[in-house]
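Fold this complex.
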Amino acid sequence: MLIPVQQFLKMRDLVWAWTVRTLRARYQQSALGWFWSIVQPVATVAIFAVVFTHIVPVDTGGVPYILFSYTAVVPWTLLSTSVIDMAVSLVQNMNLVSKIYFPREALPIATLLARLVDFCISFVLLVLLVIFYRIPIAPTGLLYLPLIITIQLALILGLGIGAAAMNIFYRDVDPLLKLVIQIWFYASPILYPVSFVPENWRWLYFLNPMAGIIAGYRDVLIYNQLPGDYLLPAGIISVLILVTGYWFFKRVEFQFADIV
Amino acid sequence: MKKVISFKNVSKKYNLGLTRTSLPSVFSQWAKQIVRRDVNTSANNKQYWALRSVNFELEKGESLALVGPNGAGKSTILKLLAKITNPTSGIVEVNGQLSALIELGAGFHPDLTGRENIFLNGTILGLTYKEIQRRFDEIVNFSEVEEFIDTPVKRYSSGMTVRLGFAVASCIEPDILLVDEVLAVGDASFRQKCIERIKILLNNGTSLIFVSHDMGLVRAVCEKAIYIEHGEIQHVGISGEVIDLYNHVLEKKRIKKLAGAGDGTDTGDGGVEITKMEVFDSEGKQVHEIYGDRPIEIHIHYISYQDIGKANAIVLIYRSDGLPCCNMRTHLDQFPVALEKGRGVISIKLDPLQLFGGMYYATAWVMNAEDSDGIAHGATDLFEVKNRTLGRGAHIAVFEPKREWRHRIIPSDNPKERESDATRGNEC
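Structure:
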């Protein structure tokens, strides 16, 4: 586990330069610039709020639906956008990958970091909303926040890095991934609370690591309580995915330039 | 001396089929694998050996050129050195930090400024921010884009982009530098600057692997060279020697192509075919070496498949680089040629050609009666013209005429003229 960390320290300047490049390129010649990173989740939530407050009311446990869904949409947007971006990060830069040697994982990692910046901006808005709605927050719960974010990053990194490597061999990975993420959205507690899932099916439901992660964000940020046992399967599965993804990436990375 | 690179029995195989995967082909391949348990026979998995058992070594401070036609395996060697790809078998050893001038400006983002791109490209090549910072001024100076360093690279001319790319890549001062055909871009003065930069690196102990189709450049930069073709090393040696050999092979190929009509495969659309062309010396012996100061005879063997009637013949002599040296036409010499069905030989006897030493070849055309269209074409093998002025790099002249030198000193104080005795006649 230590070797990847050492490698990361070695390539951190490259990762940082590539992150800056990605961000600059994304917001270059765009009048609203950074603002766009919150437009997407806010617009999504606005639509949800109209539908699920007025047309099909959802029991959120007393929390305004806007806040309820935004708490889930922010981490979900981080996952969906970064995994999709990471999957194409190597294929889009094949001219580099096939000509120059550099640590290949730098590109997907930098892609994730660039999306993490968007996440931070959306997260600031989330905190403002929590304050605006005067939601009481327990400091002990907040201690769990870094853990939840770490679990989510492990999940994203494992998926994204694995998908990036697989996408070099089969370009089908990219469209397939978009489809899977679309389905995954409904399999995660974004529009609805976990309590919608029957009690005896919950164990199966929480095999979806995003279910545990989103439930964790909600408990800590809007329900003023500590996350439950569901965080354990989410953590284990996320770490397994990270290890598998990284292992697969390392196993096939020397073939990248041969495939193109 | 310390070995910085060693290739031991290195082979590299590419599976050509893998690049075009469609879902049906993937499934059919899996099915075949399950049923027949062999993948290699599948048409989808064509194999291509880019390198076969390549062995070579490079010592510290040495410069080695890889020459050979496209697809010979030169770039594969560079990729193996840069650890972009792994060998199928054999061992590639690289000791030291390696930098590659392969794709200049690869990784430049058009929307970022020159300054930002220097940092981006530098980190891709393995430098840290601090190292780039230290070399920043040097890079900017070398690239000559000071004025535009904060302008997005998309507004740069292609020359500026390449200059910046070279500046970043060459400032690393690596132990081993790979250069792949990157100097072809950019103007002459920049090219000169790049060569000087490479030479400075060489003097400082960097080892160089250089790939180029520009033999002049190879001669200027490299001590040693490897001629590689079909993935196999054909020859290793001093660069001048390898270049001569490679040029010779290229010439032979081109002439073979020219002589395509004479290889018997062409049935002769015009009803005539030149079957072979030969060069004879004055004693009537077929030769591949002639002397510039002796007469020769060229024979054109032909088959006519029908009665052609009036025709014309042309014989041209070319220097091996394609420069036409002699042009002889039957109709200009009022020599009548009439072709009947059957075989024949047209020959031309030439007085001493007085050609400069080097490689030459002759081609012939059979032309129609109006001398407007060629109806058959053939060529001789390369033949060498030998004379006293032999030497390497013979392509510096065409003729070596019969000559006589004289030297007469005009005395300033003595009105009586004296002819120098130092007159040397050269009977060519």
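Chain B touches chain A through 32 residues (CB under 8 Å).
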